[in-house]
């Protein structure tokens, strides 16, 4: 054997070739009845054969089949040692939850099944072409998850275990689309912050801070090593991962006090067993996901999003969940009205004003504690059902006097020295502490369809006494994120600039997330004096005057794609009224007004460098076309099959369409 083959194939060892060609098979017999043999589909019968072939006790085959779907990634040894890494900590320990749930199902006579659809990491793909697959993955994963559910015909209920930015939203979409089945979400929890170090949001800025002289090489290396202080769970801030967990609970899809539990700890593992019991109870009682995810549940989710100050990415995911469930899709006007009516009550990373990690929000009482305050304000629909079979109102009655609530809050105060009422505020204390409402939806001649800013995350020092953020400045235009971050690192961006990143919406990049830009600006001394406009989106941990989701996107003919270096832009955000405008106001030596800017934009062609990213995958191009045909970002980037089919039929019935079909 040549040395090359020997390296790959190994030395010939006779034990490798001791192969047997038949086996006795499982002992016992299937619990068949004459009726089953006469009337059951062959698939049901062969399924029993497969089950005992995998080692299940033939005497225990006829219990309720409970499907446990998870986003598990990586391969762990029994002691937790990595054998093959996952994409992120958020799905690294999910298998422990799945195992606990499965054991609980079996202990009650059920037959657990498990399937896996792992998920990517938005942090890992920041600034790379991997980001082109991030948002499209959500739709693809939801479809695969639904196919897995349907492919187990005898399932009585589904448990969906997920944690992070796309895995958990896709799981919620999947269950929402299976409204006739019982379904429970099991949130994968959060990782802990280092005792001494930086959280996983700030640590993503070490490159920009090192380049600008804010960190030494040694500091960057040491801080980067410690940021994920425990091996499982979503990031320690209320980004998209944490917000998605909160929204799952707000919808009624989880057991009480499930969101943001510390991954790997007993309270987190017990939550999986509680969820398994809830799924079995749903299967017995006939309670289905469609009875839980209703229009009133969607409104509750929007209200809780506002109260927590959640990620703007949920403005894409909540409408998609509503669409999957066949419900009314929230409009921009409804989002704006909700944020006017519901004050922000939670003080955690990244919004503050006190920057607590999300595990403290869990200890302070999590979603039910926030809902107690919301109930007093009358902004919660208490008649919505949850997976326990109880309403939100009944859940809150239990929570208010529960031992669990008092133990958790006392633990936070006595062991951590943190007043739980300084993590989850009452409305009165929130107002006194200066917590502002969550999001604003500016319009203007740059964004006639609208845009989004997490207005509560604007640096307070940049807001005047009337609660208005105002920035009039000249544009510095970029058509790639790579060029934009290079400018930040190389001091091409200075205080007073308005950065414009165009062509990074669905058609250009799959609507990439641009957190490396917003995080760099946050943690550089001049960053609070810079604004950012883009047709892309932001991470939930983003802060500052960052306006995204600009519509129409540049590549769909949006005015944002006509901006040039040196254009004057006027940004006005009223944090009290939750109103805003983003206008181009001229291109001469001094700013003019929006009418003048509108005329200039109307006379221009798109930016000469505006184009789809040359590395955009065909898969994402298809996603972009399908979601655009379905209503685009303001309808949640969904696939509306009826609209797509109608458009195809109309197109195929035209002469041009027939010519394409025949080519």
Oligomer: single chain
Note the overall shape.
Answer: globular
Task: Strand order, main sheet: write it out.
Answer: 7-11-10-9-8-12-13
Main beta-sheet annotation: 7 strands, mixed
| Distance between the amino and carboxyl termini | 52 Å
Structural class: alpha/beta
Beta strand %: 5-15%
Q: Low-confidence runs (pLDDT<50, min 5 residues)? A: none
Count of runs of 4 or more consecutive helical residues: 27
Q: Average pLDDT across residues?
A: 94
Q: How much is the radius of gyration in Å?
A: 26 Å
Fraction of helical residues = 40-55%
- The overall strand count is 13
Keywords: 2Fe-2S, Amino-acid biosynthesis, Branched-chain amino acid biosynthesis, Iron, Iron-sulfur, Lyase, Metal-binding
Enzyme class: lyase
Domain Dihydroxy-acid/6-phosphogluconate dehydratase N-terminal: 88-394
Protein name: YjhG/YagF family D-xylonate dehydratase
Q: Quick recap of the structure?
A:
This protein has helices at residues 3-9, 34-39, 42-53, 94-107, 122-125, 134-150, 167-176, 206-211, 217-226, 240-250, 266-285, 289-292, 295-308, 314-324, 332-341, 358-363, 366-377, 392-400, 403-416, 427-433, 481-489, 506-509, 515-522, 594-603, 618-629, 641-652, 655-662, and strands spanning 65-70, 75-76, 82-84, 111-116, 155-162, 183-187, 450-453, 468-478, 498-501, 531-534, 546-551, 568-574, 579-584. By secondary structure, it is of the alpha/beta class. It is globular.
